Amino acid sequence: MPSASPRTPHDHPASPAPSSPPHRGPPQLPPPAPAPAPAPTRPTETRPRTRRGLRRRPTPILTQDPATTPTAVVDHVRRLCEMVLRSNDIDSLADFAAHYDPRGARTFACLLYTLDRRESALYWWRFAAGGEDPLAAHLLAAHHAAVGVSPDARLWRTQARMLGFTGDRHFPQPVRPSTHLAEGFARTVPWGTALSTFIKTAHLPRELATH
């Protein structure tokens, strides 16, 4: 029996080798979306804005107190002077004519103020306040506030506080009727020549005004 001859590669065609899947590699990610463009910045203004128009001011909640107007403050000073002249302080005028005491000087100044001798009244109020009369310092502060001289008003207000001024302690109590006229007081006091000058003239004597 003839032996089978060994097969050679040419006897039968070789079966094709299984095909391998194509090499795909790692999965590809989509490219990132482009970043949004930055918002345009507003250039810094180098010139001030022009006003389009004046705004209407709101109506104030509180109006000016009528008791603090210059006219009201002057009336306050005049009423205080009348209170002094209607009180027992009127008796100090005779002592003032003889001794120039501070209380009499303040009373004399009140008399001058009611006679519209304002400059002379201020002179004697300063004299009385220098002699530590609290009411004279208060009257000076009130007068200067009424006429708009704020530095002097603050000065005399501070002086009045330093002297312990309070209305309850230093406002005089009237004991005479309000119909008593200041001119009547002026006629009853034996004034000397120097003091009568203050009553007769509307302005402070020149010799005193220069000091």
General description of the model:
- It is built from ten helices and no strands.
- It is an all-alpha fold and 211 residues long.
Q: Tags for this entry?
A:
211 residues; mainly alpha
At a glance:
By secondary structure, the protein is mostly helical. Helix content is 48%, strand content 0%.
Which sequence of SSEs, written as H and E, runs from N to C? HHHHHHHHHH
Tell me how many strands there are: 0
Radius of gyration equals: 52 Å
Mean pLDDT: 75
Class inferred from helices and paired strands: mainly alpha
The number of distinct helices, counting runs of at least 4 residues, comes to: 10
Terminal Cα separation, in Å?
A: 169 Å
Percent in strands: under 5%
Helix content: 40-55%
Task: Choose one word for the global shape.
Answer: elongated
Low-confidence stretches: 58-67
What composes the largest sheet? Answer: none
What's the structural blueprint in terms of helices and strands?
Elements: H1 70-86, H2 92-99, H3 102-114, H4 118-130, H5 134-147, H6 150-162, H7 167-170, H8 182-188, H9 193-200, H10 206-209
Helix pairs in contact: 1-3, 1-5, 2-3, 3-4, 4-5, 5-6
